[in-house]
Design brief:
The complex is a heterodimer of chains A (120) and B (106).
Chain A lengths: L2 E5 L3 E2 L5 E8 L8 E8 L6 E6 L5 E3 L7 E6 L4 E6 L8 E9 L5 E4 L3 E5 L2
Parallel strand pairs in A: 2-11
Antiparallel strand pairs in A: 1-3, 3-8, 4-5, 4-9, 5-6, 7-8, 9-10, 9-11
Chain B lengths: L3 E4 L2 E3 L6 E7 L7 E6 L6 E5 L3 E2 L7 E6 L2 E6 L8 E7 L6 E2 L3 E4 L1
Parallel strand pairs in B: 2-11
Antiparallel strand pairs in B: 1-3, 3-8, 4-5, 4-9, 5-6, 7-8, 9-10, 9-11
Classes of the chains: A mainly beta (120), B mainly beta (106).
């Protein structure tokens, strides 16, 4: 059974960089059939797609965040990571990692999510 | 960006009811429409992909239909575990976007 688990600091200061890692178990991140992505959800609000990465390193970002986001992959560790710089309180959210199907681009497996609060 | 809208934003229903939720895209997304269920404090769960494909393990009381700009999620007989918020998501074009959600409660 595929499992995804987010990890990283739960508190980040304004103007600093948010860094999260998603560890994939029960399957290979190097599968050619899938992308791997990040989605976030501010408290009490809806879902926002942040971006995706393919195992080869090809990335796709939401233009609304593109200038601040970097997603990377480490196939040797079966992990992919998110960095969001220059954070503000508006970046406070639950951050989810998810597997994305490579044909229809639906998110079929999700991590449990991790709350990141931006506050001094 | 493709904008997604959902109606209603919330609804009250009873166990056994037939529930229908509508999702509309701001432009044609052909069949690239997915539905998720989210319960409080949990990650979203994929129910329907590609407008009408039932995700493995999802009960058959859930069904999806539509194409182009208008889509529907139907729960044929609402069960106690179905009280949740439902989101549609378009995967036709990046940036992938979600609807604002429909909360189904008692």
């Amino acid at each position: 059974q595929l499992q995804l688990q987010e990890s990283g600091p739960g508190l980040v200061k304004p103007s600093e960089t948010l860094s999260l890692t998603c560890t994939v178990s029960g399957g290979s991140i190097s599968s050619s059939s899938y992308y791997w992505g990040w989605i976030r959800q501010p408290p009490g609000k809806g879902l926002e797609w942040i971006g995706n990465i393919y195992y080869s390193g090809n990335t796709y970002y939401n233009p609304s965040l593109k200038s601040r986001v970097t997603i990377s992959v480490d196939t040797s560790k079966n992990q992919f990571s998110l960095k969001l710089n220059s954070v503000t309180a508006a970046d406070t959210a639950v951050y989810y990692c998810a597997r994305t199907s490579g044909d229809r681009y639906h998110f079929d497996y999700w991590g449990q999510g991790t709350l990141v609060t931006v506050s001094s | 960006d493709i904008q997604m809208t959902q109606s209603p934003s919330s609804l009250s229903a009873s166990v056994g009811d037939r529930v229908t939720i509508t999702c509309r895209a701001s432009q044609s997304i052909t069949g690239y429409l997915n539905w998720y269920q989210q319960k409080p404090g949990k990650a979203p769960k994929l129910l329907i992909y590609a407008a009408s494909g039932l995700q493995s393990g999802v009960p058959s009381r859930f069904s999806g239909s539509g194409s182009g700009t208008d889509f529907t999620l139907t729960i044929s007989s609402l069960q106690p575990e179905d009280f949740a918020t439902y989101y549609c998501q378009q995967s036709h074009s990046r940036p992938f976007t979600f609807g604002p959600g429909t909360k189904v409660d008692v």
